[in-house]
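Translate sequence into structure tokens.
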Amino acid sequence: MRSVASFTAETVALQRAFESRRPASRRLFVDPYATAFLRPSLRLLAAAAGVPGLRRVATGLYDAVGGPGPRPSAIVRTRVIDDALTAASERVRQCVLLGAGYDTRAHRPPALAAMPVFEVDHPATQAAKRAVIDRLGLDAGRIRYVPVDFEHDDLRARLDAAGFEASAPTAVVWEGVTNYLTAEAVDATLAVVHELIGAEGLLVMTYVDARVLADPARFPEAARWMRAVARAGEPWTFGLHPDKTPGFLAARGFRLRADMSTQDAARAWRADLERRDRPSALYRIVTAERADAPTRWHGEGTR
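Result follows.
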């Protein structure tokens, strides 16, 4: 079992800190707490992104190491997921964040302010996060922290022990996790998620295009991205082919509502916000419901 907090969780916190320092008229969201999860050197880099003359230098330095895809893709997926939860908030009564990392979504969108939020993550990452939340003095009364190793632990048992209400319609967010798991772990988790969300719930899940695992050159931004996560000890191990995703989910009891790349999702925003950064076509966001879900969900978008 990994005994240290996730490095990728910290890098995503940095990406969100960068976005939060953009001018209000040109950003997709604000995470006011992201900087608190960064080591001192990365805090300086994030602070530089708040200075107009240094913003491009700071983000450019980051992109030079990780490649042009990770940062804008993480920003877009955050906004898409926030919007999906907002759209679902009138129907669901609780939220489960699988692999919550250092995101402060439980404290950010108003849509989650009135419902219990179950944050599920690896024990080491979660312990580091809770220390920061305590230091910030944030109200965590609605939050149930559920330490789980997805490869070994019984997710449902851990949630039930934390007070999960089985009969309540539930939104489950599985962001930035599947690409680090085995196919067996993904299957096992989806089986539990199918039970968790109920007939009126929602699953929001990210994945990478499986073709990148066999042929990184297919996506120009992939090689540096994959090298960076591998160097951090968190290589990509799982993906789905977009053409096969509907069948993959159907075989596991879900009905696909939407499946888009971060590149596609960003098109409407890039022009309006005068964005030059380009999210990746290899990183994708799925929204799905149970196959027995009522049809009233249909027609509600994720943005």
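Note: The first helix runs from residue 7 to 20.
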